[in-house]
Design brief:
This protein is an alpha/beta fold. The chain contains eleven helices and nine strands.
């Protein structure tokens, strides 16, 4: 396929540019219409639609296929809103309303001395949450992201993140697996916070099989191995969209990873399973904000 045609694929840059243009140029009262139309067009994305439906079938067992099809639209609809909210924040510094769930655990993170790991998922508004947290903390945050599959989309997103970036927030991409682990270890040793998404395995990243919503699924071990090496806690934290420019920040009890035996996997497994338990808790109530567009389990292994 020619390069210009790839721009119009679901992961192509055209759709990000189109939504950004609508947010910046259309009257605010037309924003919900633009979001609805953008989400409706994304229902034509066959592989993404099927991936969300498969995941919903595991999260909500017994649901009808047509019900999960309609739920898929809601997932795309929330995804579009998070992109729009990011645009408004970066261009106009429009901050949403926030409320906290698990405030004691959030305070523990905020007051923690030294480096730590924030573990989150592909849901809610990961980017906006990192920017808001960095603005309220006196420590630097290193945010690790999986790169976009489309090179033009990756270039576009990198440019947008650099428009209003600051010294308190740095973005790294998990494709640099050879050097990234060392860089993150140094960042933690310097007292910085490392924010990582822990619900998706990317090529070249270590993983471990666990039970997730009754299915055998692979979870990345990188964040837990990093916590073990640096001897710092992991704070599970989720950014959950509640409504138009309104979010909740939900924090769980810290997870500690300790080396107790010669078997590294045995030492990592309890921490990974604790993370999966927190993730299941959040997704049962906020399934419509999990932006996992590929099935998290293999049918043959289910």
């Amino acid at each position: 396929m020619k390069r210009w045609a790839k721009r119009f694929l679901a992961r192509g840059v055209f759709w990000r540019q189109l939504l950004r243009h609508a947010v910046l140029n259309a009257p605010p009262y037309t924003e919900p219409v633009a979001i609805a139309m953008w989400s409706l067009l994304f229902l034509l994305w066959g592989s993404g639609r099927r991936g969300v439906i498969r995941n919903l079938a595991a999260i909500k067992p017994g649901s009808w296929m047509v019900t999960n099809f309609l739920r898929t639209y809601r997932v795309f609809w929330n995804y579009a809103w998070t992109i729009a909210d990011n645009v408004r924040f970066k261009e106009f510094r429009t901050l949403p309303d926030w409320r906290f769930v698990g405030l004691d655990h959030f305070r523990a993170l905020h007051e923690h001395q030294g480096g730590a790991i924030i573990l989150t998922a592909h849901m809610g508004n990961y980017d906006l949450g990192a920017h808001v947290f960095s603005a309220t903390s006196d420590r630097r945050i290193v945010m690790v992201r999986a790169p976009e599959r489309d090179p033009e989309t990756q270039e576009f997103e990198s440019e947008q993140r650099g428009r209003r970036g600051g010294e308190s927030l740095r973005v790294d991409f998990s494709a640099r697996t050879s050097d990234l682990a060392i860089d993150l270890l140094h960042a933690i040793e310097a007292g910085e916070l490392v924010a990582i998404q822990g619900d998706r395995v990317t090529p070249g990243i270590g993983s471990i099989d666990v039970e997730f919503f009754g299915k055998r699924a692979a979870m990345p071990t990188g964040p837990f191995a990093l916590a073990m090496a640096s001897r710092v806690p992991i704070f599970p934290l989720f950014i959950i969209r509640r409504g138009r420019r309104s979010y909740a920040l939900q924090t769980f009890a810290p997870i500690h990873v300790q080396r107790r035996s010669r078997n590294r996997e045995d030492d990592l497994r309890p921490a990974v399973e604790a993370w999966v338990k927190d993730l299941e808790t959040v997704l049962r109530g906020s399934w419509h904000q999990w932006f996992a567009f590929e099935p998290f389990y293999d049918e043959a292994a289910a």
